[in-house]
Amino acid sequence: MSVAATPDADLAVAIERTGASGSSFYTAMRLLPVERRNAMFAVYAFCRDVDDIADEPAPAETKSRELALWRREIEAIYAGRPAEKPLARALGGPVQRFGLLKQDFLAMIDGMAMDAERDIRAPSLAELDLYCARVAGAVGRLSVRIFGTWEQRADDVADHLGRALQLTNILRDLDEDAARGRLYLPRELLVKHGIAGDDPEAVLAHPALSAVCAEIAALARTDFQAAERAMAECRRAAMRPALMMAGVYRALLDRLERRGWAPPRAPVEVPTLVKLWIALSRGYL
Asked: For 60, phi and psi rounded to 5 degrees?
């Protein structure tokens, strides 16, 4: 076996890929025990890779072909065949060690395919729910198994928290998504507040945008509350990473609401010291 194909080398690729993302998830993952941390690095690197495929400036056919390659890699892992991508090989150990489910990896790829096939613009609420379940809920279900819990309520945590995080991301990334020709705000809420059409730039400049975003923020808060009720019925030690992510993203949502939705929308982040405080308050440190 060449050095480039060793498990340690594959893991190093996943760790580098995760650290380079600058994500809030990286802060939470670094606080896990080493075996669980490395598994999360591998899963998150996979997520970043398929997300980058969906976002790259390439024809839809190219994106679909690259996502199909990932589907074959996931099938190879579960069939006991060698995977070709270093990031896929890095998933092999976590899949066996933590009983990760193939359907969750495939759901994540299906979610990215929704972005790759066309620019999503003003989806229905049902389509937005499906998108959130695929790109966030599936990752949550992989994560709670790595955290060390298989309870039914842990899947409820994954579903509700994943949706809350994704809705918060949508509110944070309004302008970034519009620059890609995307608009994730649901059609029903746009119509409710008198916004016609689905042109991203026109919608983001509309005076009723704030009312739509306020409703999305309220939906996110409802899911945060449901997730934390479910967490209370799970082992606290296993839920600490989820508690931290909920805390960081609630702080982000608070800052977004204080900033408001009218242009110009300055970027919003959660400072490192706030993340540290959240880690302390959630019993991490």
From this structure: -55, -35
Cα torsion 283, 43, 123, 174 to 10°: value is: 60
d(CA 85, CA 101): 19
CA distance 190 to 176: 19
pLDDT score, position 64: 96
Tally of residues, the chain: 285
For residue 130, the tally of other CB atoms under 10 A from its CB is 17
Residue 252's Cβ-side half-sphere holds a number of Cα atoms within 13 Å equal to 26
Name the amino acid, one letter, at 70: W
Q: What domains sit in the chain, N to C, each tagged with a CATH number?
A: 1-100 (1.10.600.10), 119-285 (1.10.600.10)
Which helix (H) or strand (E) segment holds residue 52: the answer is helix 34-55
- How many angstroms separate the CA atoms of 134 and 143, rounded? 14
Q: Two tokens at 201?
A: 């730039």
| Closest listed residue to residue 161, CA positions, set 253, 255, 244, 226 | 226
Whole-structure pTM value: 0.91
Q: How far is CA 258 from the centre of its chain?
A: 23
Identify residue 59 by its one-letter amino acid code.
Answer: P
Q: Could you tell me the sign of the dihedral formed by the alpha carbons of 88, 91, 96, 98, in that order? A: negative
SS3 of 102-154: HHHHHHHHHHHHHHHHCCCECCCHHHHHHHHHHHHHHHHHHHHHHHCCCCHHH
Torsion (CA) 260, 282, 137, 63 in degrees, nearest 10: 70
Pair of tokens at residue 241: 């990473």
pLDDT (tens digit per residue) in 128-164: 999 999 999 999 999 999 998 877 899 999 999 999 9
Mean pLDDT value across the chain: 90
